[in-house]
Amino acid sequence: MHVLVSYAVTGAVCLALEQGLRALAGHQVVSSVTARRLTHALMGPVFMGCWPLFSATPTTQEALLAASVPLLVTLKFALIGFGILNDDFTVRMLCRHGDRTEILYGPVQYGIIFTTATALYFQSPLAVVCLMNLCVGDVMAAILGARYGKTRWPLPVGNPKTILGSVAFLVSSFPASWLMLHTMGLVLPSMHPLPTTAQLGVVSTAAALVEALSPSKLDNITVFLSTLFIYHTFITA
């Protein structure tokens, strides 16, 4: 498939998902909270699911072209967050408290991480693990931790995150990463499954702990950076 066709299909699929979730929220089929969480959880796997449309050995130009898909969305969110572009519906859908500047933390950070991971690690296991931790683990920690979590982490002082949320992060991000890696064929047949699975478990556990101890406005960034570090330490060392 020609690279421009791959790019167009990827962009169209991601746009269709975003517009579909907007429509569901707009028609009150789902709440704005649910739409926000679905956007956070689904956009990444859907985007990565389009990566095989590109060549198996992508060039730098292909990686940058693919990275421009989340980049364009991120630029739109940044314009909304800074008040340059008016989009009240997006603010209601993506912001917990209706403050447009919230977009500059969650959605914009999310987009920057996706753009960076795609540009630097396109079609690599590292990119998949980093992004699945962010998409699946972070969302499940927020949902289950906020709803059912009662015991909070003692540090740092005033930490609103719960131990149950961290467990939810681990038990969701670990199998999600494993499944996405195998689905995309990014686990080499020569790799012994048990050590590889154990290493992936270490990465997911470390990311869950970092998420638990990070400020809420910065946990997207800290999860991404910690996953990069731990992955290089335990898997590619």
Please specify the SSE layout and strand pairing.
Elements: H1 3-26, H2 32-49, H3 60-81, H4 88-94, H5 106-121, H6 125-148, H7 163-183, H8 193-213, H9 219-234
Helix pairs in contact: 1-2, 1-3, 2-6, 3-5, 5-6, 6-7, 6-8, 6-9, 7-8, 8-9
Q: What does this entry look like structurally?
A:
It is built from nine helices and no strands. With 237 residues, it is mainly α. It has two domains: 1-123, no CATH class; 124-237, no CATH class. It is globular and about 50 Å long. 39% of the residues are buried. The model has no long low-confidence stretch (mean pLDDT 88). The chain crosses the membrane at residues 63-82, 103-120, 126-146, 167-188. GO terms for molecular function: ATP-dependent diacylglycerol kinase activity. This is Dolichol kinase.
Q: Would you count the extended β strands for me? A: 0
SS strand fraction: under 5%
Overall average residue pLDDT: 88
Q: End-to-end span in angstroms?
A: 35 Å
Helix content: over 70%
Q: Please count the helical segments.
A: 9
Question: Main sheet?
Answer: none
> What is the overall shape?
globular
The total number of structural domains is 2
Topology pattern, helix = H, strand = E: HHHHHHHHH
What structural class do helix, strand and pairing data support? Answer: mainly alpha
What are the main properties of this structure?
9 helices; 237 residues; mainly alpha; Dgk1-like; membrane
